[in-house]
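Mods, move this if it's the wrong board.
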Amino acid sequence: MIDRKTAILITNEMEAAIAPVLAKYGLDRDRTATAYGDIYKVTFTAHLAGEDPAVKNYGLYADAYGLPADSLGTVITSRGQKYVVTGLNPRAKTMPILCKGEDGRTYKFPIASLKRVLGLPVNPWDER
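Not the wrong board. Structure tokens:
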């Protein structure tokens, strides 16, 4: 049985080993997903270097969500903290807006949060 500590060690070594291969082909690693226990499963996701999929998705899908394409970079204030809109994840049904917080971490928000800041009408399905 593979425990968490061992899975982390294996994953770190695999990430280090795959980094030169990704660089050779002009790719950046997005994330690594692992499952461990009786088996060990790892999934690497990558994108072309210099292209942020969340930014690209914002340009592609903003209109479908009723948002202006130029609202990327808008600042949202929530509970006294400021967040900058950095992209869109269309696969996230309830909170597809991606923002960077003042602490540098990525946070998710519903469509309604951004629409309120922009002064746009909010539909019931934006609140999900």
